[in-house]
Protein: Polygalacturonase
Amino acid sequence: MNNVNRVDANQVNASEVNASRVNDKRRAMMQAASLALAGGGFGIAGGAHAAIADDPWGRAQDITRRLSKPLKFREQDFPITQFGAKPCKVVQVKGWISHDDQEMIGTHAPGSFDCYPAIAAAIAACHKAGGGRVVIPAGNWFVAGPMVLLSNVHVHLKKGANVLFSNQPTDYAKYGEFDCGKKGRLVISRWQSNDCLNFASMVYAYGADNIALTGEDWTSILSGQGGIPFNGKDGDCWWTWKGKNRTINPASQANTPGYKEGQLTQRVPNPLNPMSLKDVAPHLTEEERLHIQGEGDRWRADEQYLPALSEAGVPLAQRVFGLGHMLRPPMIQLIGCTNVLLEGYHVKDTPFWQHHPVHCRNLVIRNVHCNSKGPNSDGFDPEACDTVLVEGCTFDTGDDCIAIKAGKDLDTQYGPSQNIVIQKCIMQSGHGAVTLGSEMAGGIQNVYAQDLVFENIHWATDPLNTAIRLKTNMNRGGYLKNFYVRNVKIPHGVQTSPSFYASLPGSPIESRTVATAAGAVVTFDCDYTPTADTVRTRPPVVQNVQISNVTVGNVEVKKGDKKGQKASCFQAIVILGPVASDYNGPQPMPTVVPVLDVTISDCDFGTPVNTEQPWFLYNVKGLKLNRVKIGGKEYNTTLSA
Structure:
């Protein structure tokens, strides 16, 4: 019998019980969220779509006003030292600080006191008392397990508090609710927008209401130690699990920390996964199975296997990962929570995405320093969330600074991400500054981004790849509508060299010719990494996007034919609409519509390197450029392609 990805035989009964509990939790969570929206008035009321069209920025102001009301907690403190916490010593070890760079980093000394039990006890006592504030004082605190937030609990880091989360994966497979045998005790999670049972995040909550995680200032640090070697000296770290870099023509982030050719990562077939989907999805027809698996055994890699389970309709309780698998947990993951505040701390060196709220309502992240330069270190990824305010944060990331998500494959039960305001933030390194997708099968709507500085201070060595970014494809599908951007300053431009994408055989777009991965100020990529997905049956819809008052500066080009000249980007605008030839489902094929109703006005995009082709358009209808300057020339025109 194949060693398939499920609980051991002696855990079957527990698995069945857990499946029931998972479903019960999901139903309760969705009901609670619906009641909160109905009672709190934070959701879109009937007829609000018309109001958005008439006054989108008025709607943004309304969301901001509603979320500016502070959360309330009982006035009682629960210092973790009263529950037995003890500070640790810090030693210096050689570790990774980015994809490409190593230096000496402070980490907990061997044998450090584990504060996990004390923090868990403080949170439990606070919750039982009806709420209050769990206080982490100044000092270095080693925590070998997840910090699980409960309703009415406010966890506060004082100035100088440095929480060093264990860098051992086993510590996040010890305390979960679901006993999955050799794979550990796991939690309900989402990994790149697919549901699974997996390692707990360093900070985790499920179905909680009225919770806060705050710091006194940016000396209040939560460290995921993603680049610290597991053995403390050399070799693998969390970031190694990413596997070999695939970006075509990267300007930076060319390597994966600690990676050596041939080792097990999320991108290579995992022997724990079955040889055939028949073992976990016997209900599939042979045609369906082959469609999902695709050619070869690439689908057995963990990052491909989980989406395959979703496409096959395998229930959550059977999507068991954890120990023996390579799916890194997010640093902070909050699922099904309402009334959430994240404020004032510094998060660094996270194993995977830095913040990943899923199906949350009424969420504020304010004045947080999101600082992690490792693989997939997105700063803030709200998924299927409703009514969100991102304000005053600074992002320096190894992937997208902000990336709004909404489910992938068949995992769309939480609906769209919507009613999101992003304002007064600063972005440095990253793939995209404000990104929507790529996982957006449930849809994204009503997003407002304003008064932003994409500073890009590392432009010479680790540049921001693109500024305003949409990612979807014929697999992710979904929709984007009602996206508004205004008042953005980009003083040091974006990456001035192109990073291309690889198209599928038979595509009208030749591979390695369109700079969708990096190089444009505005990038709409509706054919994002199409070679990664075997099921391509869901055409995306993109409509009603308004971008205004974006100002882009020039910098000195460091490489290529234009070396030494001044430029702001490779191209100003790249809009690659859906590519119909990618479709591989049953006939008749669904309608594939072009990108519609995009208006760019009152912008100065600086001088692109590619002056001969300042924009690239494919399957776009009615792109309006009003008072748009590119290379000093003003454009007032409507374009289709």
Summary: Residues 1-23, 29-51 have pLDDT under 50 and may be disordered. The chain has six helices and 39 strands. Helices lie at 12-40, 48-54, 56-67, 116-128, 286-293, 302-311.
